[in-house]
Amino acid sequence: MDKFLVPAVPKPLDGEVEIAGAKNAVLAIMPAALLADGISEISNVPHLKDMKTMSDVLRIIGCRIDGENHKLRIDTRGANHLEAPYELVKTMRASFYVLGPLVARFGRCRVSLPGGCAWGPRPIDLHLKGLEALGAKINITHGYVEATCEGRLKGGTFHFPISSVGATVNLLLAATLAEGESILQNAAIEPEIDNLVDYLISMGAKIQGRGTRTLIIQGVESLTPGKGETIADRIEAGTFLCGAVITRGRVKVTHMVPEHIMSVLNVFKEIGCDVTIGDSWVEVDARNKSLKPISVTTLPYPGFPTDLQAPLMATLASIEGNSLIQDTIYHDRFTHIAELKRLGADIQLNGNTATIIGGKSLEGADVMASDLRASAALVLSGLIAEGETTISRIYHLDRGYEDFEAKMAKLGATVSRIRPELA
Ligand code: EPU
Predict the structure, then answer these.
(1) Distance (Å) from CA 232 to ligand 1 centroid
(2) Structure confidence by residue, pLDDT tens digits, 236-251
(3) Burial class of residue 31 in the structure, from the number of CB atoms within 10 Å of its CB (0-12 exposed, 13-18 middle, 19+ buried)
(4) How many CB atoms lie within 10 A of CB 179?
(5) What is the pTM of this model?
(6) pLDDT per residue as tens digits for the range 140-196
(7) 125: Cβ below 6 Å to ligand 1?
(8) Helix 23-32 crosses helix 191-202 at what angle (to 10 degrees)?
(9) Most CB atoms closer than 10 Å: which of 70, 118, 190, 405?
């Protein structure tokens, strides 16, 4: 397994990076192709492990997938094996997104339950209850969800008791082909959902309420293959901007949508950084600033994203004084704390709230990444730790950050990948 070797940066990060397409948007859009017979196209697709995993899921179903230059073509004409196996779903929960489109188009499918993840159980009850509200019969047997319906799914109303990105994706995909009108109340409004709505509309879906918590879908009998572009990855952008703050440097992220990270930019401003916003770029300047500790709570969009909780925690550990982070989305998403502590950070966890006693000097050590965003947090801390930090299990990071080492190099940091045979 590859590792990262991170020496402390001799100087603060300084430079510009281009942000890739959003992993979590592509993961929702790729299964949308299953709703139509033919070749769908998606552009601005990042080269990431998760895209390969979703391609493998679609291939097992019978799709042909090819791509180049950040474009993907998904040919669904051979889709006839209506199953997503445990071997793939367990490695990437978003594989579960094929459930909605498969039952909607083919009237039956069998998809493995995803199981737990590094920071807790992560239930899928809302996906299933929502599909039942659209007339699907759900049967769980031998670790698999079997979904069936007689004829087409039937339009229905589903109220999400809590905001869920994944369940909104699954239901939206399913409702496009249901008979009659479906209403999704308290739906997620993350930018990735809007991206999916736009893509589905390109396929002929009838959806009203884009960007609001009530989505109204008039089901159609059939859809045509889609074509559309993925939005920029707001979490990747936020991670590199955290890099500016933790090293007291200056980073400009380009080819992105500033509006998608307003809550994050407000945090950087509150800390005491200069934030400059352009039409498709943002620059955060933390040079020669006296930075302050803060309190942050993760919330559904447009609140501060849970996916930046770990990178922000690493960042706040560099700022003198006590900061607080409460994660209200995933109460147990704190496996990075033990590893940050190995580098010398002082962090106490009480329930879902971490107190970060910032300003302690860090020392390089061997640490282990427990998930995608935790990996990014460890790299950021490694940049300011004295000596070398080695981060193992970076296959987690490879799931969500394209060309990470090259982008870090553009900012002046040396993050080296050590392959096992060279280690
Ligand atoms: N939840 C339920 N029941 C469900 C579904 C969700 O109780 O059926 C709960 C979850 O346990 C959680 C909350 O609802 O407490 C929100 O979870 P959500 O469904 O929104 O998360 P998700 O769809 O599984 C996506 C992203 C995650 C991101 C979360 C929150 C994708 C592929 N994944 O997950 O991204 O953390 O939304 O924004 O879009 C990442 O990129 O590192 C990542 C983990």
Answers:
(1) 19
(2) 999 999 999 999 999 9
(3) buried
(4) 16
(5) 0.97
(6) 999 999 999 999 999 999 999 999 999 999 999 999 999 999 999 999 999 999 999
(7) yes
(8) 30
(9) 190
